[in-house]
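tl;dr need the bound structure. longer version: we got a ligand (fe (ii) ion) that a collaborator sent over and nobodys looked at where it sits. i said id run it. heres the input, straight from their email, havent touched it
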Amino acid sequence: MAQNKQNLSRRDFLLTAGAIVAGTMIGGRKALAEQAAMLGTSDAAPAFQLPPLPYAQDALEPYVSARTMSFHYGKHHRTYVDTLNKLIAGTPWAGQPLEKVVVESAGAADKAAVFNNAAQAWNHTFFWQSMKPGGGGKPTGRLLELVEKSFGSFEEFKNAFAAAAVAQFGSGWVWLVQDGDRLKVVKTSNADTPMAHGQTALLTCDVWEHAYYLDYQNLRKDFVQAFLDHLANWDFAASRLK
Ligand code: FE2
């Protein structure tokens, strides 16, 4: 497992989130692929991969345990990726960038399963990048200026972020997003994600119970406070600014 990238740029993240490899072929594509292979070209429909964590599974302890990470990353995130690959195999989405699948499936009732798994695959990759060992503290530079302009102060931002996380009813996410020249705190339910609403995500905290229940039981507020005080990766957030 790669443990050496903690501060991926926006470009690196997009490459990671959309990471694809030669994968499963189905139906008539197999014959075409075999023919292409003989000709020295490739027609294999690529599949999404589970991106490597940017740190070791125990690197966020004591705030997120290795046990939580083993289930959250190794089971939940992996299942979203695997399910998405099954759902889109043989469709025009096979081999397309993950963000394209998310945006194109958003809001369509008959595409809900694809959206849910594609968005959750993207959201979780983004969540891992939103944290780092020794994180927390304050942003700097332009990001801090935008936070202060949008919320009044960094403390007021933290209060708004924590309040939104606690207020999210049921499963979902809390985000810092860029919407034009303003930053906002938004919460989304289930798999919903800011890109489906034309917003640029800068930072997120997963508030599904699977994100914190092994470590914090029902105390979501304590988990979100630990995220803000000890885990938030402000370098990553700054790299996402437009
Ligand atoms: Fe999660």
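gonna send this back to them w/ a short note. Residues 66-88 form the longest helix (23 residues).
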